[in-house]
């Protein structure tokens, strides 16, 4: 395919998706303006765990895209851009009951069928590889070649390396559209024009696309501990409880309360701290943590890694994922517009998928073959898209 480079582009949003799109365009010499309602990484990207992982995926388009996402992190780490930001590690999915072990064996088969490298560890092997785990661990599956990255640090690096200044506190109100093309945008401060427009506004995309019933907020609560270098060093990777596989969606709640699921993931950070998550709740409240969620996450964590009982909790925080009703993100050209694109709706996978999706969108905008198959993520599958124009 022949490349057709736009000379200028507007990017709406400076989470990981917008920052990565800005970086890949700037690297090609495109004049980029990034418009941000608040500040870089102010929304989901700044409140994420950061697993760059396929461990919980099932075979299908999300698995294929996530494998490309991990490859891109490795590539960018190899080039030096993410060298100090991407921590390569395995994920250990741990079964604490026979029922979980059964689910986990089937899941390991599915991962293998997608070309993911996994090892099944018996009870004894699990205890040997992962001595800090509780004796309740029946077995584990080690998922190799995974990693971890902190979203706001990735955003900072992409913006700095791309030489990009973000126009903060400048929300976009609408796209300016004429004769099947986006001419630019109207922000709270005025009108800006460019040859291409990329919408990477996370939950803010719902309003700009008229998709309020298609995009849904899904809150998550996370915890960070103090440094515990010895315990941290004794963990050869992240732990995911087998129950996580059963609880990726939110679950039914008592009357009047939003639905909530808890799936335990414990990530040993390079700082010696632990990042422990998290919940999935059908609400857009990103400002609060509650005692019930924090105490349940901690109880689950200590049940799996008893040594954590001696480690102090430093802080808790919450963020809101942008979920799409059919479980697949929106990545592609906006229907009816030649030069406008969207990349959003990654739910709990945007740290892994954000950079590779942004790279694919930039390739699409340049009339090149995208690095990932975008057909399953085509925004045109939702007839209701109505660009706020
Ligand atoms: C608790 C939690 C845990 C997570 N864990 C993981 C994980 O382990 N692994 C993983 O891969 N992913 C994880 N995620 C998901 C990941 O954080 C998101 O999918 C990803 O950050 C989405 O990035 P984004 O750039 O698309 O959107 P966002 O980060 O939401 O950024 C969108 C930006 O657009 C701006 N904006 C909105 N409206 C407008 C407007 N009108 N004009 C201008 N700007 C606008 C916002 O202010 C924001 O800065 C987690 C998320 C949460 C909340």
Automatic annotation (TrEMBL):
**Protein's UniProt keywords contain Oxidoreductase:** yes
The keyword Cell cycle appears for this protein: no
Q: Cite the entry's keywords alphabetically.
A: Oxidoreductase
Q: Name one Pfam family in it.
A: DAO
Query: Taking every annotated instance into account, which residue ranges of this chain make up the domain FAD dependent oxidoreductase?
Result: 9-364
Gene3D superfamilies reported in the protein's UniProt record = D-Amino Acid Oxidase, subunit A, domain 2 (3.30.9.10), FAD/NAD(P)-binding domain (3.50.50.60)
A GO-annotated cellular component: cytoplasm
Q: Which GO terms describe its molecular function?
A: oxidoreductase activity
Span of the signal peptide: none
What protein name is recorded for this chain? Answer: FAD-binding oxidoreductase
Its source organism is Ciceribacter ferrooxidans
Please spell out the taxonomic lineage of the organism that makes this protein.
Answer: Bacteria, Pseudomonadati, Pseudomonadota, Alphaproteobacteria, Hyphomicrobiales
């Amino acid at each position: 395919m022949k490349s057709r480079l736009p000379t200028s582009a507007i990017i709406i949003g400076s989470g990981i998706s917008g920052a990565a799109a800005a970086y890949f365009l700037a690297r090609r010499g495109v004049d980029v303006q990034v418009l941000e309602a608040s500040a870089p990484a102010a929304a989901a990207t700044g409140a994420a765990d950061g697993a760059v992982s396929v461990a919980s995926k099932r075979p299908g388009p999300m698995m294929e895209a996530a494998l490309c996402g991990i490859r891109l992190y490795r590539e960018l780490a190899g080039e030096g851009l993410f060298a100090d930001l991407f921590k390569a590690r395995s994920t250990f999915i741990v079964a604490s009951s026979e029922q979980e072990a059964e689910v986990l064996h089937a899941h390991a088969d599915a991962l293998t069928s997608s070309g993911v490298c996994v090892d099944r560890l018996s009870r004894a092997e699990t205890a040997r590889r992962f001595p800090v785990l509780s004796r309740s661990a029946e077995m584990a599956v080690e998922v190799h070649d995974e990693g971890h990255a902190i979203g706001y640090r990735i955003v900072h690096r992409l913006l700095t390396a791309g030489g990009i200044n973000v126009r903060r506190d400048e929300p976009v109100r609408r796209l300016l559209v004429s004769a099947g093309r986006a001419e630019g945008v109207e922000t709270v401060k005025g009108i800006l024009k460019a040859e291409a427009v990329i919408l990477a506004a996370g939950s803010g995309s719902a309003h700009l696309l008229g998709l309020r019933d298609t995009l849904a907020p899904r809150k998550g609560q996370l915890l960070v501990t103090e440094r515990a270098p010895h315990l941290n060093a004794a963990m050869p990777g992240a732990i995911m409880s087998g129950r996580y596989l059963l609880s990726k969606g939110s679950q039914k709640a008592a009357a009047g309360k939003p639905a909530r699921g808890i799936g335990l993931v414990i990530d040993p950070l390079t700082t010696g701290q632990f990042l422990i998550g998290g919940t999935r709740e059908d609400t857009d409240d990103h400002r609060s943590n509650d005692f019930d969620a924090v105490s349940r996450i901690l109880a689950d964590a200590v049940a799996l890694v008893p040594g954590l009982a001696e480690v102090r909790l430093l802080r808790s925080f919450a963020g809101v994922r942008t979920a799409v009703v059919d479980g697949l993100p929106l990545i592609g050209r906006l229907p009816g517009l030649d030069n406008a694109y969207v990349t959003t709706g990654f739910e709990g996978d945007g740290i892994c998928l954000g950079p590779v999706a942004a790279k694919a969108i930039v390739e699409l905008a340049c009339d090149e073959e995208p690095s990932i198959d975008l057909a399953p993520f085509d925004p045109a599958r939702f007839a209701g898209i109505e660009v706020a124009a």
